[in-house]
């Protein structure tokens, strides 16, 4: 399972990429493999206020369904509108398939996220 | 009597081969104190005795088929072509499970896909599910769907002309939800656009109207839909599917969700169930739709076939986060509706619907001519109407029952005035049937008028 | 002769002008159509229904039926679904005109036979389950769960304990349990299972408390193991002030053997389409009656049957009731079938059923366990769960085994539930030893093939009208109607 070093991770298998005051969020390689073929994505509306660890998006495969949690608090600044039309991209390229970007209200929350080593360990890799 | 193929000797031998010394070994986990053999049940019966005993119970009933019935109110007596019973009792349909194993269930799956297609064609909507329990729970499921699709809005506005049982079920089924169910008043038995406009504020997630409504009146659904959408709510149309052989389809007047009771489509009255709830909707609501969906796809060799799809919405995967808890649906009833619609076809459905509309209009107008009788809510009807009787409707029913006629449903029990009677006429009523009914009502009229004259003296 | 060919859609067989059913016109004085229904209320375009002759319709649906596996044609060992034989007399009784043609609103005086049957069925179910009252209203198992939970909620509220908002559900429970609890407005708390498959009673004790409304339990559980500590669990929940809910999905194991009411359960639902032999019909209809102890009677849904001066009638005046859960009065046609089934069996028949179901399951388990690891060693009740370790080690999935079983003429067991990569097998009492032997042989042969010819298993089925369906494509490119 790929776990790129430059990203941050959550215990619920989201990855986070910091872009200035934005946090881009997707799901990890491990998560997509567990879900298997993804068929549906429900993304939040831009402008929505979210709090860390609350569910903000939903993802479905043929045999599983899962919520995607906000790794940090803030406002949904942007969503990857192309993704719901091509959900298989999340399986094929999990780390390119960001789902939404949060304009962080408290960047201090980033400290609570895992680094690549810790996440790797948590998934038994 | 039982249906166990293995003999006692075989069972005994199997027990040993399973490595148990006795049956008690196998049930050792059930504490002795909890075992309860010797239930107090009536003695077992052979099929002959059973048939005799249960047929005796059936003989104590007088179903509409043996009387002349003008009962409707959400459950309708229609002619059921013979081929339906024949095909729907085939064991391959009848004793199959939910088609989770697609390759071994192509028959059921294709039937559901065809059912979905037919219901879309009938209602003029884009997607259909594979069925729900009945009309009432379908209305409630549509309401939950609307609440999920309109987050932030928590009011459901229901026309007071919707079937009272549907409203009761809606209240029960959504009692665990954070929502508010409000009715808005009708005017002379039909939707009052002004009352709807006053009720439809920014809190409304959906407006629910029924067509024809509980009182039989055809509603101006197009107008109600306009007002609903202007308020930003979803429009839910509860419809009699058979009426759609003639009446405007929900898709034509822009409904977001169409639901209803599918019983008129080839399903026996059977004292209230099992029936068939259906739901069709706009395509963008499909992910929030309850119940099963069948999709057409390809197999590994590229040949077309069918499978259940979007199952991740459902309870067996989503558990407490599922859109609905429904699991069992009404597959066999959907099969009946599917066969019914194919046997009738474009022309046949139109014929039945037209018959209902013309015969009901004729009966209504004729009753209105009888002294003392009038129509409670003049206006267009499909197969039902409310008669204002010269005496209590329950008395009319009692008098006609003695002549082997079920006169209709007295509305007193549903909160209506005591002299209002809901009368239904379908294609099962011939002109002589209606004449007999008119004659019986004329007798009531005569006796009531005579009495009145007597009082006046 | 190869009859099992996929069929074109019925719409493709449609020919303009072809007719099956015809109806008379309403003659002699019927109102003209425009007067009856003004054009503004009529549909603009006729509904696009197909046009066919009767024989074409009959052949189409007959051929479609032949593409199905069913209990009448195949062994169908779906765990927790109780795919037993559906006796034909049930259907004949339900189809009697004295039942099938009855209108739900016909006067009670003309429906006494039907009402007596329902009243009698309530009493029989009470005796079988050890409960005091039954409501026959719910349309299905999940509907029964929802109704039962509403009853619990109404009772707690009336005691001033409406704050109890947690329903405890074991992780091995049917998906409908947590889903129904949520629909009824409760929060769900998951109770872990022990490696043996039984509920972790110590964990249950920690989780039960002042916010507990109920514990929902299936017994025997979904691993086919009887929860022998049910007495302790009942005590824990009742001490905490909650109620005990019995999910009757696995009641087939207990018919005439033990009763949920005697185990301390306050509410039960039954799936008449499982233990009581009413047909599954490709997904329904079912019926999910709910039984309660006497103190919960006031909360049962309306209408209820009441006897006044010897005659039965529907009673709607029940102020504490949870309300109405469906239109009319239950899936009557299904209730007639279940009633017929119970009257055929009597107490001895019921006992023989559960006994044969349990023996069949243990016999089959013994036959397959050399190649398929038992998830819960020791005797099972009416069903059991195995894990195909050997095949999985070779990269075969349980779904592959399921599809290969179809080639041998057996429906698949329930898959990957309640644990990963498992087969949950419920043979029921109505299968012969010979069938079980052939099924065990097929499973053994598939275990062999997993080693000798894994591709054959992975690409199964080979002998069905279609090959493996692409469910991913079905979901990504939705095609839900023609």
Structure description:
- The complex is a heterotrimer of chains A (125), B (457) and C (482).
- Chain A has one domain (8-122): OB fold (Dihydrolipoamide Acetyltransferase, E2P), CATH 2.40.50.
- Helices cover 15% and strands 35% of the residues of chain A.
- Chain A has helices at residues 29-35, 88-92, 116-122, and strands at residues 8-9, 14-19, 22-27, 38-42, 49-50, 55-61, 65-69, 74-79, 100-104.
- In chain A, the strands form two sheets. A six-stranded antiparallel beta sheet of chain A has the order 1-2-3-9-8-5.
- In chain A, strand 1 and strand 2 (14-19) form a beta hairpin.
- The model of chain A has no long low-confidence stretch (mean pLDDT 94).
- Chain B contains 14 helices and 17 strands.
- Chain B has a seven-stranded mixed beta sheet, sandwiched between helices. In chain B, strands 13-14-17-16 form a four-stranded antiparallel beta sheet, covered by helices on one side.
- In chain B, strand 13 and strand 14 (384-388) form a beta hairpin.
- In chain B, helix 12 crosses helix 14.
- The longest helix of chain B has 39 residues, at 331-369.
- Chain B is globular.
- With 482 residues, chain C is α/β, with parallel strands linked by helices.
- Chain C has three domains: 10-65, no CATH class; 89-344, Type I PLP-dependent aspartate aminotransferase-like (Major domain) (Aspartate Aminotransferase, domain 2), CATH 3.40.640.10; 355-472, Aspartate Aminotransferase, domain 1, CATH 3.90.1150.10.
- In chain C, the strands form three sheets. Chain C has a seven-stranded mixed beta sheet, with helices on both faces.
- In chain C, helix 9 (230-240) links the parallel strand 4 and strand 5.
- Chains in contact: A-B, A-C, B-C.
- Chains B and C meet through helix 1, helix 2, helix 3, helix 4 and helix 5 of B and helix 1, helix 2, helix 3, helix 4 and helix 5 of C.
């Amino acid at each position: 399972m790929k776990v790129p070093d430059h990203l941050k991770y959550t215990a619920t298998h989201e990855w986070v990429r910091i872009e200035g005051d934005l946090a881009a969020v997707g799901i990890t390689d491990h998560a997509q493999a567990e879900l298997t073929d993804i068929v549906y994505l429900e993304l939040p509306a831009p402008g929505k206020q979210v709090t860390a660890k609350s569910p903000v998006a939903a993802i479905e495969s043929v045999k599983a369904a899962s919520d995607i949690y906000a790794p940090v608090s803030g406002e949904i600044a942007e969503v990857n509108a192309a993704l719901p039309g091509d959900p298989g991209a999340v399986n094929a390229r999990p780390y390119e398939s960001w789902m939404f970007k949060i304009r962080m209200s408290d960047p201090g929350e980033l400290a609570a996220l895992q680094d690549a080593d810790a996440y790797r360990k948590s998934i038994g890799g | 009597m039982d249906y166990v193929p293995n003999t006692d000797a075989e069972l005994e031998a199997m027990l040993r081969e399973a490595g148990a010394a006795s049956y008690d070994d196998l049930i050792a986990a059930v504490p002795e104190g909890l075992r309860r053999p010797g239930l107090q049940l009536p003695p077992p019966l052979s099929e002959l005795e059973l048939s005799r005993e249960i047929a005796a119970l059936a003989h104590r009933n007088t179903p509409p088929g043996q009387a002349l019935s003008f009962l409707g109110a959400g459950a309708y007596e229609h002619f059921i072509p013979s081929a339906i019973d024949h095909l729907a009792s085939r064991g391959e349909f009848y004793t199959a499970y939910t088609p989770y194993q697609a390759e071994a269930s192509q028959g059921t799956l294709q039937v559901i896909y065809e059912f979905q297609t037919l219901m879309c064609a009938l209602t003029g909507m884009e997607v259909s599910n594979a069925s729900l329990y009945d009309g009432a729970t379908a209305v409630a499921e549509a309401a939950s769907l609307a609440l999920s699709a309109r987050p932030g809005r928590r009011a459901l506005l229901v026309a007071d002309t919707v079937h009272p049982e549907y409203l009761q079920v809606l209240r029960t089924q959504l009692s665990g939800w954070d929502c508010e169910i409000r009715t808005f008043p009708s005017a002379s038995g039909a939707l009052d656009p002004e009352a709807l406009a006053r009720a439809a504020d920014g809190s409304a997630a959906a407006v629910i109207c029924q067509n024809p409504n509980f009182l039989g009146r055809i509603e101006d659904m197009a107008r109600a839909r306009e007002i609903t959408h202007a308020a930003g709510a979803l429009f839910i149309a509860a419809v009699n599917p058979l009426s759609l052989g003639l009446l405007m389809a929900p898709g034509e007047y822009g409904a977001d969700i169409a639901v209803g009771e599918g019983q008129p489509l080839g399903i026996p009255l059977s004292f209230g169930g099992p029936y068939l709830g259906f739901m069709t909707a706009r395509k963008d609501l499909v992910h929030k739709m309850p119940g099963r969906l069948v999709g057409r796809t390809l197999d590994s060799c590229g040949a077309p076939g069918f499978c259940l799809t979007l199952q991740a919405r459902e309870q067996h995967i989503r558990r407490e986060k599922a859109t609905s808890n429904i699991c069992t649906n009404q597959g066999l009833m959907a099969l009946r509706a599917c066969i019914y619609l194919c046997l009738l076809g474009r022309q046949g459905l139109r014929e039945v619907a037209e018959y209902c509309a013309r015969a009901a209009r004729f009966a209504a107008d004729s009753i209105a001519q009888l002294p003392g009788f009038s129509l409670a809510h003049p206006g267009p009807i499909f197969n039902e109407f409310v008669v204002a009787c010269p005496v209590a409707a329950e008395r009319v029913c009692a008098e006609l029952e003695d002549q082997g006629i079920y006169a209709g449903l007295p509305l007193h029990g549903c909160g209506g005035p005591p002299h209002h009677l809901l009368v239904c006429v379908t294609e099962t009523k011939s002109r002589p049937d209606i004449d007999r009914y008119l004659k019986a009502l004329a007798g009531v009229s005569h006796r009531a008028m005579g009495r009145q004259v007597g009082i006046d003296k | 002769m190869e009859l099992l060919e996929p069929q074109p859609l019925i719409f493709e067989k449609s020919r303009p002008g072809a007719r099956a059913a015809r109806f008379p016109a309403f003659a002699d004085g019927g109102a003209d159509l425009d007067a009856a229904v003004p054009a503004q209320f009529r549909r603009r375009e006729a509904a696009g229904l197909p046009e066919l002759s009767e024989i074409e319709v009959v052949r189409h649906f007959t051929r479609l039926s032949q593409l199905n596996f069913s209990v009448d044609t195949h062994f169908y060992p779906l765990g927790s679904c109780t795919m037993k034989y559906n006796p034909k007399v049930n259907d004949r009784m339900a189809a009697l005109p004295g039942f099938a043609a009855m209108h739900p609103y016909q006067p009670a005086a003309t429906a006494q036979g039907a009402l007596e049957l329902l009243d009698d069925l309530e009493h029989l179910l009470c005796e079988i389950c050890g409960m005091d009252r039954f409501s026959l209203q719910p349309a299905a198992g999940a509907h029964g769960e929802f109704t039962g939970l509403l009853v619990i909620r109404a009772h707690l509220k009336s005691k001033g304990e409406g704050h109890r908002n947690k329903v405890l559900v074991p992780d091995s429970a049917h998906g409908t349990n947590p889903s129904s609890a949520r629909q009824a407005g409760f929060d769900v708390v998951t109770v872990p299972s022990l490696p043996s498959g039984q509920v972790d009673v110590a964990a249950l004790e920690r989780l039960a408390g002042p916010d507990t409304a109920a514990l929902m339990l299936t017994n025997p559980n979904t691993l086919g193991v009887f929860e022998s500590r049910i007495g302790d669990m009942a005590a824990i929940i009742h001490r905490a002030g909650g109620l005990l809910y019995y999910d009757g999905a696995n009641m087939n194991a207990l018919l005439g053997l033990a009763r949920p009411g005697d185990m301390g359960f306050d509410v039960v639902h039954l799936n008449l389409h499982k233990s009581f032999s009413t047909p599954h019909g490709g997904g329904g209809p079912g019926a999910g009656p709910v039984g309660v102890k006497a103190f919960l009677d006031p909360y049962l849904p309306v209408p209820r049957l009441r006897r006044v001066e010897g005659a039965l009638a529907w009673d709607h005046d029940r102020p504490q009731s949870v309300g109405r859960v469906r239109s009319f009065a239950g899936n009557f046609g299904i209730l007639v079938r279940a009633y017929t089934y119970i009257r055929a069996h009597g107490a001895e028949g019921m006992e023989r059923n559960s006994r044969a179901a349990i023996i069949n399951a243990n016999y089959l388990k013994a036959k397959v366990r050399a190649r398929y690891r038992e998830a819960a060693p020791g005797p099972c009740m009416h069903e059991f769960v195995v894990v195909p370790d050997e095949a999985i080690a070779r990269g075969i999935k349980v779904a592959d085994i399921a599809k290969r079983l179809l080639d041998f003429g057996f429906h698949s067991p329930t898959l990957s539930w309640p644990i990963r990569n498992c087969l949950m097998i419920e043979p029921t009492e109505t299968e012969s030893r010979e069938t079980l032997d052939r099924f065990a042989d097929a499973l053994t042969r598939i275990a062999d093939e997993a080693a000798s010819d894994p591709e054959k298993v992975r690409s199964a089925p080979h002998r069905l009208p279609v090959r493996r369906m692409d469910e991913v494509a079905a979901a990504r490119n939705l095609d839900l109607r023609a």
